[in-house]
Amino acid sequence: MSLMGVDVGTTGAKAVVFALDGAVLAQAYREYPLYHPQPGWSELNPNEVMQAVKEVIGSAAQQASDPVRAIGISCQGEAVTPLDAHGNVIFNSPISFDSRSLPQARYLEEKLGKRRIFDITGHAVSSIYTMCKLMWLRENEPEVWKRARKFYCYEEMVMHVLGVEPRIDYSLAARTLGFDVIKLRWSREMLGAAEVAVESLPPVAAPGIDCGKVGARVADELGLRRDVVVATGAHDQPATALGAGVIEPNIGVDGTGTVECFTVAFAEPVLTDRMLECQFPCYNHALPQMYCTLAWNFTGGILLRWFRDNFADEEKRIAAEQGRDVYDVMLERATPGPVDCLVLPHFTMTGTPLFDNQARGAIVGLTLDHTKADLLKAVLDGITFELKYNLALLEQAGVPVQRLRATGGGAKSPLWLQLKADIFNKPIEVPTSSEGSCLGAAICAGVACGEYRNHREGVQACIDIHAAYEPRADMASAYEEKFALYRQIYPALKDLHHAM
Fold this sequence. Notes:
Elements: E1 2-8, E2 12-18, E3 24-31, E4 43-44, H1 46-63, E5 68-75, E6 81-83, E7 93-94, H2 102-112, H3 114-121, H4 130-140, H5 142-147, E8 150-152, H6 154-162, E9 168-169, H7 170-174, E10 179-180, E11 185-186, H8 188-194, E12 204-205, E13 210-213, H9 216-222, E14 229-235, H10 236-243, E15 251-256, E16 260-266, H11 273-277, E17 283-284, E18 291-297, H12 301-311, H13 313-322, H14 326-333, E19 342-344, E20 362-364, H15 372-396, E21 403-408, H16 414-424, E22 428-431, H17 436-448, H18 455-462, E23 465-469, H19 473-486, H20 489-499
Parallel strand pairs: 1-5, 5-14, 9-12, 15-21, 21-22
Antiparallel strand pairs: 1-2, 2-3, 4-7, 6-8, 10-11, 13-14, 15-16, 16-18, 17-18, 19-20, 22-23
Helix pairs in contact: 1-6, 2-3, 2-4, 10-17, 12-13, 12-15, 13-14, 15-16, 16-19, 17-18
């Protein structure tokens, strides 16, 4: 038997089938468009997303040599979909970096106070979170609000289309800003302030809970057995941490996807003033009875996709001719070593610690001597510098990180991994599987169907380290000088970007 992890991301859905020892048996991926109907708005069409989810589940299941026993779900946080009384989608899903709900975030902060919200939810109030999006919907789309009966994040949407009763796991519930991360239940105080009925939200459950078997019609449509269990998984970043074996202190996972994010685990909640000041969350890990924090930039791998779509026609042609991944071709053509131009990777908005919805990206220091290869290298450096800044703040907040594990698309590139080791000046370990979020979801599925006694047993069965990259002292020093310049860009351009 095998286990499937499904990851519903911002720009695409992936399904990976794993053997019980973590070996990849099959996988499938589908992209979907991200819509920007107004400046600052970013949303997904849930029907398009769910169609992609069904396609990847069916494709991966049919490729796998062993039948799938259970499916676990990892997904992006914050995005929410309203459904009517018949279970039909009635509005698009505004995603995390959609900024339309800034006024609602300010209202919550004024009503309850920043500190009170953090003590309940483990999150600093921000427009990215689901409660703010629901408040915006009520105030700006009253007809949609009137018709809506349920509000689902993408974990529950997948369960909905698979024909099981939707539940939301603790970690994803925490990303709504409506969940009490200590008491492990919906917070009536938060829901009351947002004027959201608890009945409109799904029941909460721990990661790795059996939610039922795939509906017979859907199972036949997707080529699944009719006894396939659907399990609660986790928000994508805790799922990635579980799938990388980050279940002890002082180890972080660097997950490179659309968003680039550090996730660090700890045993007791950390709700200190410094955590709040830096806007680092403290919420439930995919490993039950543990907590985690995140540091991230919303413009991660999506910036490489932007570069690919706008500047990499030649690399796409070469990749097609040689049967290679276009990102591999791009990265090997990037200028080696530090370059004397810099990219501020705020092309969507900033993540921690600023959460600046009005931030903009910047390319600084260009001359006629610079090449496309220099610009690509500056993109890679900028994404990595932003996370270096966050790493330093995490350690100041009392969450030390001695080494990192890499997952996601960036974990497949030795060039980028060495670059990260040099810029972070910390060792980078690479698990055997780079599919951290899907593997974490699959481990949850294995617990739900009884293949593993608990999550730790699943981690021990599935995860090994196959490569490591040590920082090079000379390169670390050279990048430290560039980082000092990088840190000056945002404050220098902030007022201009806000005016724009």
